[in-house]
């Protein structure tokens, strides 16, 4: 997506819909309050993104990780005129449950993350690598394509 404001996005979705990924830069785009049925993990690559989640205002700066639980209402926008670039992946709860069951060799409870912003360089690096692998040659999307 390119809309003349400097905003763009690249989007990918698995065939079964259990995994989605987006790489985007937003200067003027605003996410109004919404939620996802998935776990959502993002990493801010450049700039600062501001959002409200769980009744509090948060800012994610470059290198920080965002972690939303399923059905966590949140909004989002650039914290300043320079905008922000980020990668985000959405994981279906069934996918997470299956991975945890494989690791534990038994059914495991789904986790809930208590902080929507984490300063964890190792997790950020791993998220960037996962996103790059998922998006590969994914095209940029616009109003009439993707």
Report on the structure:
The N and C termini lie close together (9 Å). Strand 1 and strand 2 (19-26) form a beta hairpin. Strands 1, 2, 3, 4, 5, 6, 7, 8 and 9 form a 9-stranded antiparallel sheet that branches. The chain is globular. It is of the alpha+beta class. The chain contains 2 helices and 9 strands; from the N terminus they run E-E-E-E-E-E-E-E-H-E-H.
Query: Average pLDDT across residues?
Result: 89
How many β-strands, per DSSP? 9
Please outline the major beta sheet: 9 strands, antiparallel
Q: Helix segment count?
A: 2
Question: Which parts are unreliable, with pLDDT below 50 for 5 consecutive residues or more?
Answer: 139-146
Q: How far is it from the N-terminal to the C-terminal residue, by CA?
A: 9 Å
What gross morphology would you assign?
globular
Residues in helix, %: 10-25%
* Element pattern in H and E: EEEEEEEEHEH
Q: Tell me the radius of gyration.
A: 15 Å
Question: What's the assembly state of these chains?
Answer: single chain
Strand content: 35-45%
Structural class: alpha+beta
